Structure formats: structure tokens, C-alpha cells
């Protein structure tokens, strides 16, 4: 009896071992660090194809493919290894698990039914400047897309909790307005140099500020806005100064507040942009 039990136990153990060592075939399930996938050719993998030995007995071009969705706002796109490429789209960092070699592959035509794209920037995001505008224009770190657009988009996002409900709504509308105005440059519909892009972009600022409701904000929100866009940056270039002055034309209360706070002191040195505005504001005193 003991001998027969031993033989049966040995048989069960050997059978279990043989099953464990069976090779995985294409289409079989496999398990990788980021989840369960299937063994398939890398050319057919729409998710993360792991070059590691998770399908050990299959050909080299058969790997464990895990369909991992990206995090919001790219939840309709899939994560991929950068060495797989992103045909027809572009990679976005920090929206996938794993190391930097795994990134979100966003389709430039849409990135999914509800995902943002270069033709449809998402609210309260800044990726448009780096992933679309800079990718297309290649203006460098000091150019408008990265040096101004991306920089201050992130600053305003960080300052958002300090604003009133109206102030938060203003940031959302303004950020989206500024990005939508630049879609033609990001998609290639509008050509030109980085200098032309910069001039065009600054020219859209006043309209976005005013149409989004800067005039109706409480002074506490104006304080946050001015502290976010520093005085040096606000008036450090002719483009930024002109944009602010032009905003004052349609927003005299805000402009008057800037003067009373002592923020605008160099306005009389820019006669070409400020002469008419200064006259209108002076009438208030």
C-alpha cells in the first residue's frame, strides 16, 4: 500500500512538473510585471511588448503583450515600449507604469474618443505646448512653446488652489483659449518661424484674458495672477507689456488696480503702446 501511494505521488509530481515546463504557444496567456497578457508577435502588439523571457519557447519576435491603458487624460490610449515606436502618433511621458522606456502612445489624430490631441487640447493640461506645439515648431527651451507657454501654464496650474471659484474658472478658460488659438501652428496648417509664432501667440493673450473674464475677478485673484506672472516677466519683454496694456483697454478697473498697486510704473516709457490707455485711465482720477 505504501509503495503504491508513493508511486502515485511521484506520478502526480512528475505530471505537475511536466505541465509547468510546457512551452507557451502564440496566443497563450503570459504574466509580465505590469499585468497579464498574451504571447504574440511584437508587430501585432497594441500594448506593451516585453523583450524579457516571458514566452521562453516561442520565436524571438513573439513576446508577452500586455494591453495597459494610459492614465488620464489619455485613458483611451495604450502604453508601449518606446522601442516599439508609436506609428501615427507621439509618446507622452508619466502616464504609464514602469520605467521611462514605457510611455503612452497618443494618436495625433485624436488619442481616443475622449482623449486630448493636437487638434483638441484638454482642459487644465499643459502637454499641448510640449507634445504638439514644440514637437512641430522645434523652437527650443527659450522659444515660446516651452519658454513661455509651458512655463506659465504650469505656474498657473500650481497657483490654482489659491484662487476663488471664479478665478479657477478663469484659469481653465484662459489656458484652453490660449492653446486653441495655436492649434494651426501645432498641426502644420499654419507655417512660419518661431518668431512669427511668438508674435502671433502674444497677440492672442489679451483677447483670451478678457473673454475669459479677468475684468470680473475679485482683487484677491488679481493678486495671485500678478504674483504668478512676476513683474519682471510680465513687463520684461515688449510682447508681454503690449499684451498687458491692450488688456487694460477693455479692462480699465483692472488696469487702474495695477497702477494703484504700484505695479505699472514704466508705462509712460512705452508711449507707442500706452498713450491712449494712459489717457483713458487718467480720466478716472
Distance between the termini: 111 Å
Question: In this structure, how is the largest beta sheet organized?
Answer: 4 strands, antiparallel
The side-by-side strand order for the widest beta sheet comes to 1-2-4-3
Q: Tell me the strand percentage band.
A: 5-15%
Helix content: 40-55%
Low-confidence stretches: 1-25, 108-115, 266-274
H-E string: HEEEEEEEHHHHHHHHHH
Alpha-beta content class: alpha+beta
The tally of strands reads 7
Tally of separate helices: 11
Mean pLDDT: 75
Radius of gyration equals: 28 Å
Describe the protein's architecture and organization.
The protein is of the alpha+beta class and 285 residues long. It has a domain at 127-282. The protein has 11 helices and 7 strands. The protein has helices at residues 2-20, 127-137, 144-159, 165-181, 183-187, 194-211, 219-228, 231-235, 238-249, 252-260, 271-282; strands spanning 29-32, 35-41, 48-50, 62-66, 78-81, 89-92, 102-107. The strands form 2 sheets. A 4-stranded antiparallel beta sheet has the order 1-2-4-3, with no helix packed on it. A 3-stranded antiparallel beta sheet has the order 5-7-6, with no helix packed on it. Helix 2 runs antiparallel to helix 3 (144-159). The protein is elongated, with a radius of gyration of 28 Å.
Provide key terms for this protein:
285 residues, alpha+beta, four-stranded antiparallel β-sheet, three-stranded antiparallel β-sheet, 7 strands, 47% helix, disordered N terminus, signal, disulfide bond, hormone, Stanniocalcin
Amino acid at each position: 500500500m505504501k509503495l503504491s501511494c508513493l508511486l502515485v505521488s511521484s506520478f502526480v509530481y512528475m505530471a505537475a512538473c511536466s505541465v509547468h515546463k510546457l512551452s507557451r504557444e502564440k496566443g497563450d496567456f503570459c504574466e509580465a510585471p505590469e499585468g497579464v497578457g498574451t504571447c504574440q508577435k511584437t508587430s501585432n502588439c497594441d500594448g506593451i511588448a516585453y523583450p524579457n523571457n516571458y514566452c521562453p519557447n516561442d520565436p524571438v519576435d513573439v513576446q508577452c503583450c500586455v494591453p495597459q491603458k494610459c492614465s488620464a487624460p489619455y485613458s483611451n490610449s495604450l502604453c508601449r515600449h518606446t522601442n516599439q515606436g508609436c506609428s501615427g502618433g507621439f509618446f507622452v511621458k508619466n502616464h504609464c507604469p514602469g520605467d521611462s522606456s514605457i510611455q503612452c502612445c497618443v494618436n495625433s489624430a485624436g488619442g481616443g474618443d475622449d482623449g486630448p490631441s493636437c487638434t483638441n487640447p484638454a482642459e487644465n493640461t499643459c502637454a499641448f505646448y510640449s507634445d504638439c506645439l514644440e514637437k512641430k515648431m522645434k523652437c527650443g527651451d527659450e522659444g515660446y512653446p516651452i519658454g513661455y507657454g509651458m512655463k506659465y501654464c504650469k505656474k498657473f496650474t500650481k497657483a490654482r488652489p489659491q484662487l476663488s471659484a471664479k478665478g479657477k474658472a478663469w484659469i481653465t478658460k484662459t489656458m484652453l483659449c490660449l492653446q486653441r488659438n495655436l492649434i494651426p501652428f501645432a498641426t502644420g496648417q499654419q507655417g512660419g518661424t518661431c518668431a512669427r509664432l511668438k508674435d502671433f501667440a502674444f497677440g492672442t493673450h489679451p483677447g483670451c484674458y478678457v473673454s475669459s473674464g479677468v475684468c470680473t475677478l475679485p482683487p484677491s485673484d488679481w493678486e495671485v495672477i500678478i504674483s504668478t506672472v512676476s513683474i519682471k516677466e510680465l513687463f520684461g519683454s515688449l510682447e508681454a507689456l503690449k499684451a498687458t496694456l491692450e488688456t487694460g483697454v477693455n479692462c480699465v478697473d483692472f488696469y487702474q488696480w495695477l497702477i494703484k498697486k504700484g505695479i505699472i510704473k514704466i508705462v509712460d516709457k512705452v508711449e507707442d503702446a500706452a498713450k491712449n490707455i494712459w489717457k483713458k485711465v487718467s480720466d478716472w482720477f
